[in-house]
Amino acid sequence: MKKLRVVLSDFHLGNGRFLxxxxxxxxxxxxxxxxxxxxxxxxGFAEGSDDVEIILNGDFFNMIQLMPxxxxxxxxxxxxxxxxxxAIMKGHPALFSTLRRFNAEPNRRLVFxxxxxDPGLLWPSVRxxxxxxxxxxxRFVEEAYQFDGVHIEHGHQIEPIHRFEKDxxxxxxxxxxxxxxxxxxxxxxxDFLYRIKRSRPxxxxxxxxxxxxxxxxxxxxxxxxxxxxxxxxFILKTCFSRLPLKRKGALKGLSAWLELARSPTxxxxxxxxxxxxxxxxxxMGHSHIPFVRNFGNERVYLNPGTWNxxxxxxxxxxxxxxxxxxxxxxxxxxxxxxNLMEWHGHNKLFSPVVP
Length: 355
What we know:
Layout: E1 3-8, H1 33-45, E2 51-57, H2 78-91, H3 93-104, E3 108-113, H4 124-134, E4 137-141, E5 144-147, E6 150-153, E7 170-171, E8 179-180, H5 184-196, E9 206-207, H6 209-219, H7 221-238, H8 244-248, H9 252-260, H10 267-277, E10 281-283, E11 291-296, E12 299-303, E13 310-312, E14 319-321, E15 325-332, E16 335-342
Parallel strand pairs: 1-2, 2-3, 3-4, 6-10, 9-13, 10-12
Antiparallel strand pairs: 1-15, 5-6, 7-8, 11-12, 13-14, 15-16
Helix pairs in contact: 1-3, 2-4, 5-7, 6-7
């Protein structure tokens, strides 16, 4: 039996490329549904593959990037998370139709691993909504997916500002209904970063963020200055939040700038996972940076990055980039072996320009 595991990460699906009135949705990150459909069809329906899993390793959904009319509702309740996931699936109909056809085939599975952008996957009704749309066998993983010496997790738990309290995912005291106990970094993204994204849609696609802010001093001065003031005002407000992790992490916001200023590879975390679990293959996402490191003795760490556009201000990777990279795990003589692969898809004479 030929077994394949295809690992993809950080697609950040939003409400769709176009709003109901036909205008472009500036807050939608993912514009490559067609390429992803080609990949799913290739691995899902190709002859010779008897057992195939597509593993969506966190942040497949962008459930914390809210449309302006959703800001007051937020994402912390089960009802709000359900509304968001339904809007996302409705915004990408062809893709979810293909996932359903894939999952209807024998020995085909979809695995959803929670990331810091899709914590709504913790809610039972959100999982049920996904299962209704894609059908077949679906697995949901909150922390790490482990099998045959392979360890796959999103990677946000390694960074303090994005770390969830695993024994306290929900808050109930003082609330009319349970809410998600989100880490400070989620509120930074949801309540600060995505608000300035409305005027600079590319702001969350520049790496590292600290260098981008220094670039603004010379090239976009007033935006940079106003953003700095907004940042410190955001930190001050979080000091008085009723949400424990948001309040507790407020002062961390001062040092968080140092984390945002670098481009983490998470390689140290991967080594620690290997030591603790004995895993031979570790796969993570979260950083949006494609990366592979061989440690010897058939131990390897892989990160497929993201399919979304990235502008790097680091000299080794300077410039605008988009690479459709994934991790392919193939079994040889019963043992898994992993490689980073780049999807090129079908050759086409033309394609629409992504705004």
